[in-house]
Amino acid sequence: MLRSLRSLLCCGLICGLLSPALTAETVPESAMESGEVLHGQWRRPDGGYVIQIKTIGEEGQLEAAYFNPRPIRVESAQWRFGGGTLQLRIRLNDRGYEGAYYLLQYDASTNRLVGEYHPANQQTFEVVFERLLAPPQNQ
Known about the structure:
The chain is built from two helices and nine strands; from the N terminus they run ααβββββββββ. By secondary structure, the chain is mainly beta.
């Protein structure tokens, strides 16, 4: 039984269904300040929407993709770190998404992105994104 549980956990980690928990103690301050902790894939558990952070630029720019489940055009994506808070803004621009954007903040204690989704011409609502893939470890 223990062997099958280990196999299930390993499979979950490999497939990206589970990820090792990062906590405030395990996230280096440099990863917060550089934005590197954002790198990877993030999924909204309430609908399967996925944000993929591909690259993090030094000047606050992000290369990001958004899926619902099909690709949705990302018009712009930025990040900033200040006052101990890592924030990002992702603006969408596709059919049915004109003017929609996310304002999110990285929560190191839960390893999640939390914030608001502002759909075009609709009411704003709170959202949470959970990490799908662990960020690369810089040695």
